[in-house]
Amino acid sequence: MPGLNSIDRRALLAYHPGVPPKKREAGRTKPELSKKIEEEVMKLLKVGFIEVSQYPEWVANIVSDSWKMFFDGAVNLSGSGTGAIMISLDGQHHLVAAKLIFPCTNNVAEYEACIIGLQAAIKMGVAKFRVFGDSALIILQTVGEWKTKDAKLLPYHEYLEDLVREFEEISFEYLPRSHNQFTDALPTLSSMLQVTDGLEVEHLKIEVLPKLAYCMIVTEELDGKPWYYNIMNYIKKQEFPKGSTPTDRKYITKMASKFFVSGENLYKRSYDSILLWCVDAAEAIQIM
Question: What is the per-residue pLDDT for 60?
């Protein structure tokens, strides 16, 4: 491809042969906002904070079809650990983590984290990969900008190069630690794990909850009656459920003293004098 080195891991682009790239229509910005942006850009150019780079127009319009991986290692008083998060094309997150039970430096832990992530990706058949990490040592060595003379790191670097050859396309990019906090938590948790014989930790599953935890305890009533039916029935008719024991009746009487009925609605008196409307499962779901 003219102007691009197809084997340079710093500039790999995902594209489909035979499908011509499409140029995206130029967006429009308000004139007053454009002027402010231009002034800020010129200031950055003047002080040398940014520079102008020339690329083919279609480069910015390429849609990536690569998996992503974020890795990190941790060494602290509790021990050492590694962690990596792989994100598939459909946004699914695959987590791998390991506790290191041998003495190591932080650089070794970073290499271990990157390697276990690459190994997992290879087993899953990932062909195109974008790797992100906050270890400048690993990233810059892998892209060929740095070279290490540390005898402990040379075997790691050589093995990492072997794993890289297993992918059709792969790139390594530096990511500031402030943008890698979630991945940083994995090796920290792994390092704190107390190792015992036969210990096996199940995969971490993180659920996304759209509702408050205490609101989820309201479930569908099996008998078709709301949870407050007996309280409301006692207040309106002074009746107890059939088959109730003296203890049950005493409890209902005590509970009823905290509620009152207005029309067809039941309210609970709170300690701060706010009236709480009692709802059934269907109403709770509709409100939430």
Answer: 45
Q: What is the Cα–Cα distance from 16 to 248, expressed in whole angstroms? A: 71
Is residue 121 assigned to a domain? yes
Q: Alpha helix (H) ranges present in 150-208?
A: 154-164, 181-192
Q: What's residue 197's pLDDT?
A: 58
Contact 62, 13 (CB under 8 A): yes
Strands 259-262 and 79-87: unpaired
Helical ranges in 193-228 per DSSP H: none
d(CA 153, CA 220): 59
- Tokens for 113, please give them: 């984290």
**Residues 212/100, Cβ–Cβ less than 8 Å:** no
Distance between start and end Cα atoms, the chain: 54
Total number of domains in the chain: 2
Low-confidence ranges of the chain (pLDDT < 50): 1-14, 56-62
Classify residue 252: in a domain, yes or no. yes
pLDDT at 47: 65
Close Cβ partners of 120 (under 8 Å, ≥ 6 residues apart): 84, 86, 94, 96
- Taking alpha carbons only, the member of 236, 234, 286, 238 closest to residue 262 is 236
Distance CA(7)–CA(105), nearest Å, equals: 32
pTM of the predicted model over 0.70: no
Residue 92 placed within a domain: yes
Neighbours of 15 (CB within 10 A): 14
